[in-house]
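Sequence design from tokenized structure. All designs in this work follow the same two-part layout: the structure record, then the generated sequence. An example of the structure record is given first.
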């Protein structure tokens, strides 16, 4: 008798074959598929919600042991679930820059003359990713780290340190998959996708930048610190100046599916030497230091 885990492993081996995975997740009408899945994810009727949640749990290998509520009314509720109090503890060192989210560490390291890498051999320019050349210049010789959230992970993200958010810019765009297979095939992918650029400063005035990049399927970004019930997309492109102080670990928002956060630090800050591409990291673990 074949066990469910064996069936899942066999199916995932097939689906993760590079050509097939890229075809299935990118060579379809991405925006149309995203709208359809987004609508399905919001449906709370059991005839839709239960099969959708079962498929998500089967294919994404979801761990709900630390979820605040183990049952969900819709697939969207599962994606955006809260955790039990204390499930993520943020590094208390005032000099620590913590991971804002649960993620798999991707490309990271120095930004060289305004250029970073989505994967080896695939560079992108900060002045293409960001809306303002002056903002790009601020981090042109800094550090960056790529944090990829998979479909089964905890999808909320948090302040990596005590900081004040000074502005948010929403940039509309495509919704390519952001998995390693797509990153190795689509040049400047992060510069093409829908994204939110979050400008902030640490307590000592040091600038820090988080870029939340949406991906195929639900592709929604909600910024709860702006106190708006709608997705960022619903407000349309543009820059919103603000002054929102957030304590280390405070919730900043969520994705409505797996996606990516790019974090940029200025040259005076450093990344943790133990960071390794492909390593899992949890919200609150140290990424760098001021």
């Amino acid at each position: 008798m074949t066990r469910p885990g064996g069936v899942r492993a066999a199916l995932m081996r097939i689906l993760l074959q590079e050509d097939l995975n890229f075809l299935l997740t990118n060579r379809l009408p991405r925006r149309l598929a995203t709208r359809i899945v987004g609508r399905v994810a919001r449906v709370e009727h059991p005839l839709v919600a239960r099969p959708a949640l079962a498929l998500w749990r089967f294919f994404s290998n979801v761990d709900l042991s630390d979820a605040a509520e183990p049952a969900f009314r819709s697939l969207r509720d599962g994606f955006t679930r809260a955790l039990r109090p204390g499930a993520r503890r943020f590094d208390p060192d005032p000099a620590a820059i913590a991971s804002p989210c649960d993620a798999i560490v991707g490309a990271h390291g120095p930004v060289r003359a305004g250029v970073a890498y989505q994967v080896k051999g695939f560079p992108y320019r900060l002045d293409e990713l960001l809306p303002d050349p002056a903002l790009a210049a601020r981090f042109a010789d800094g550090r960056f780290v790529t944090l990829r959230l998979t479909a089964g992970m905890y999808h909320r993200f948090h302040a990596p340190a005590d900081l004040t958010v000074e502005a948010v810019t929403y940039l509309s765009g495509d919704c390519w998959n952001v998995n390693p297979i797509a990153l190795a095939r689509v040049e400047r992918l992060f510069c093409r996708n829908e994204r939110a650029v979050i400008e902030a400063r640490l307590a000592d005035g040091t600038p820090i930048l988080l870029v939340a990049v949406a991906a195929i399927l639900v592709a929604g970004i909600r910024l709860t610190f702006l106190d708006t019930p709608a997705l960022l997309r619903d407000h349309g492109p543009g820059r919103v100046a603000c002054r929102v102080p957030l304590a280390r670990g405070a919730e900043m928002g969520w994705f409505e599916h797996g996606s990516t956060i790019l974090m940029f630090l200025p040259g005076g800050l450093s990344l943790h030497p133990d960071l390794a591409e492909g390593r899992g990291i949890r919200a609150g673990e140290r990424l760098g230091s001021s």
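The CA atoms of residues 156 and 254 lie 4 Å apart. We note this feature because it recurs in several other targets discussed in the main text.
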